[in-house]
Amino acid sequence: MDLKRLEYFLLVADHGSFSRASSVIGVAQPALGRQVQRLEEECGAKLLYRHGRGVSLTPEGEIFAERVRPLLTKLAMAADGLNQNERPLSGSVTLGMTPTMMSLMGLPLLQKMRAIAPGIKLNFLTGYSGYVHEWLVDGRLDIAILHDARRSRHIAVDALAIARLFLVSHPSLAKQLIAPHMASLPVLGLQGLPLALPSGSHGLRRTIDQATTKLKVNLDIQYELDTLTLMKAIALAGIAHTILALPAVADEVHSGALTATLLDAPSMETRLMIATSLNRPLTLAGRAVLEQVRPVLQQSIDSAVIPLHMRLA
């Protein structure tokens, strides 16, 4: 089976169009179509639906793509490291993270890579999950950490961690709301509280909205802010509450400047995913960085100033 045909098939499937795939790889559209058609003949099954909007995978195509993709990835990696003693790891790798994850593991990851592969230059971009997703799709990032992202024709995702969510408040507001003996707050208790939250295009907000909509809780969102700094400042000023995972406010909670109350009944949590672009294969340097994300995150969780209620997936 021709490897080039397999690569062409996956590119067409990922882009959802022969014309878009043709422009990316620089192969004429008719020639690309013939290669995919010959692959279908070899397989004895139609792999793609052709329609007015482009193409989509048939059930047989989905199965075939799931089988072929990891094989091509392993083949591309076959020669990696064979000459490692002569050629130390080098290159530039760009990572995108939410502000919470950057505060938790940005510096530890930089220090780790500096110790084991000083030739790799790390570049970090930080923003809310929706922005980081856009940067990854646009090709500005090699690796991204996102809230509740799903695989698409542009990105591959893998579960990284699960973090419980907390109502974050100024201590004076928390005393008005929560009795001293209470260790948590039911999600229904969010009804009517003044809140500062991210806008709806970001993963954390979608998680909050899904949980509260299911329980028919009407949130009083007084401020929509796509900046963690200002959201924390509003909580510190006692203007409104916010909802965050503990790594975002660990220092403030540890010092007593803010109070964090676990949201429960049902528990509210956000799933963090590690994502890479299907259109921008990782270099050897990128894979070396990717291999360190989980152990560095675990070390950061273990060494935090307070328990973070966060675990690796």
TrEMBL record:
It comes from Pollutimonas nitritireducens. Keywords: Activator, DNA-binding, Transcription, Transcription regulation. The keyword Transcription applies. Residues 1-58 form the HTH lysR-type domain. This is LysR family transcriptional regulator. One of its GO terms (molecular function) is DNA binding. InterPro entries: LysR_HTH_N (IPR000847), LysR_subst-bd (IPR005119), WH-like_DNA-bd_sf (IPR036388), WH_DNA-bd_sf (IPR036390). One of its GO terms (biological process) is regulation of DNA-templated transcription initiation. Belongs to the LysR transcriptional regulatory family. It comes from the Bacteria. The keyword Transcription applies.
